[in-house]
Design goal:
The chain is α/β, with parallel strands linked by helices. 35% of the residues lie in helices and 18% in strands. The structure holds 2-phosphoglycolic acid. 2-phosphoglycolic acid binds at residues 11, 146, 151-152, 180-183, 201-205.
């Protein structure tokens, strides 16, 4: 992975209007110039291109991720979008988030196809696992450990357990490992540990730009 660590990903899920996102980018963008790591924004899909234009024009130090990637190439797939349609805009693609697994019935088999499509489309998958037993497809360089009980609940995993799982996730592979699940400005430091947890995936606390800036800082 070439991006400087830590990676800090804002996962906006299906939140914000364009006006709100635009103002979020202004607030966060101003603060990213001195950041040593990599700030990654995963906005709601309809805003990817406008966010890309805005970030490029302002020359902000923010990279983009999609919140999902199709397992299909371009073609007759109504409602979907292919890796080759967004790979000039996004560097990363979140794949296997537990909300996709649970609400959209994404199986291991589908997720393996999504990862393949992302890699073929030159998009780096950020693959979410719920614990150390989750299947991790071939070719994954970034894994995000996101225990379901910690997502959106205000009830994060303990840093000790997160680090233990992270060690297992990288045991046989050279991987960047992130933690996600109720990360806040108050607890972010306890999770980050060089060589163990290389970044965070933030949902709720990323929605408020001021809170997210505190996490970066
Ligand atoms: P949360 O979400 O920060 O709201 O727990 C994390 C995630 O779902 O990626």
């Amino acid at each position: 992975m070439n991006e400087p660590l830590p990676l800090v990903i804002a996962n906006h899920k299906a939140n914000k209007t364009w006006e709100e996102l635009s103002s979020w980018i202004d607030t966060v963008g101003e603060k990213t110039a001195q950041f040593q790591g990599t700030v990654i924004l995963a906005p709601s899909t309809p805003f990817l291109f406008s966010a890309f234009q805005k970030i490029s024009q302002a020359n902000f130090n923010i990279k983009l991720a999609s919140q999902d990637i199709s397992q299909f190439e371009q073609g007759a797939h109504t409602g979907d979008f292919a890796a080759s349609q967004i790979n000039k805009i996004v560097s990363f693609g979140i794949i296997g988030h537990s909300e996709r697994r649970n609400s959209f019935q994404e199986t291991d088999e589908i997720l393996v196809s999504k990862v393949k499509a992302a890699i073929e489309g030159q998009i780096k998958p950020v693959f979410c696992v719920q614990d150390e037993s989750t299947l991790v497809p071939e070719g994954i360089g970034i894994v995000a450990y996101e225990p379901i009980s910690a997502i959106g609940t205000g009830n994060p995993d303990t840093p000790e357990n997160a680090q233990e799982v992270s060690t297992k996730l990288r045991e046989t592979h050279q991987r960047t490992v992130l933690y996600g699940g109720s990360v806040t400005p108050q607890n972010v430091k306890s999770f980050l540990k060089k060589g163990e947890i290389d970044g965070v995936l933030v949902g709720t606390a990323s929605l408020d730009p001021e809170e997210f800036v505190k996490i970066i800082e």
